[in-house]
Amino acid sequence: MEKKKIKVGLFIPCYINQLYPQVGIATFQLLEKLGVDVDYPQGQTCCGQPLGNSGYEDDSKGICNLFVENFKQYDYIVGPSGSCIYHVKHHFDILEQTPDVKRVRNNAYELCEFIVKILGKTDLGASFPHKVGLHKSCHGLRGLKLGSCSELQGEHYSTEEDLLNGVKGLELMSLNRKDECCGFGGTFAVFEEAISAKMGKDRVQDHLDSEVEVLTGADHSCLMHLEGIVNRNKQPLKVMHIAEILNSSL
């Protein structure tokens, strides 16, 4: 008897949908290659994070309820953005905690976490012969616990590193400050642009100092911030979402 495929609702954050569609495509293709039954709900919109970050959580309830309505029927909800998934899991407490809301919150996973923890895979057969630097975004690292934090004692772990170390030809470069914030922080980059830009420049410089060719991460909002700095300063770094790397040459 054939084993039933996991049914996944693919959540593509609005900024990826509008600005980085290649990341959404790579995520979809990667999940399909891993044997997952992937569906993209056509009615999906924003998860409500921008409103929540700006202090307007009550005004985001309609968006949050629409998210639940779109994704409540799936075994898992998977998205290539730690910050958006964190918002669903930890900030949908503003809604009435119906069975559907609880199900969506409990079954929402960031892409790397889903591959490692639910599918139990780290070697995906990918090939990417480049020197890569990993930016560990705050929501994924300290919110979703995708890895251990340098400020805490304990055993080192990282779902993102596990996946990148399984990519043929990829050399994961060691950074001087492995889990420092890039300064994006959503609306923080708008209200405190000078601080945000300086923090981003420091993160980019760390990758350059470490001889990185490709800067990657699991949250494209941070990567968008860093890529903007790289492009404005004409620096020799390519920025790619981790889904694009894991989907290469599979």
UniProtKB/TrEMBL annotation:
- InterPro entries xref list: Cys_rich_dom
Identify this protein by name.
Answer: L-lactate dehydrogenase complex protein LldE
The source organism is: Algibacter luteus
Residue ranges annotated for the Cysteine-rich domain, each copy included: 8-88, 133-226
* Pfam families from the UniProt entry: CCG
GO annotation, cellular component aspect: cytosol
Q: Tell me, what is one Gene Ontology molecular-function annotation carried by this entry? A: oxidoreductase activity
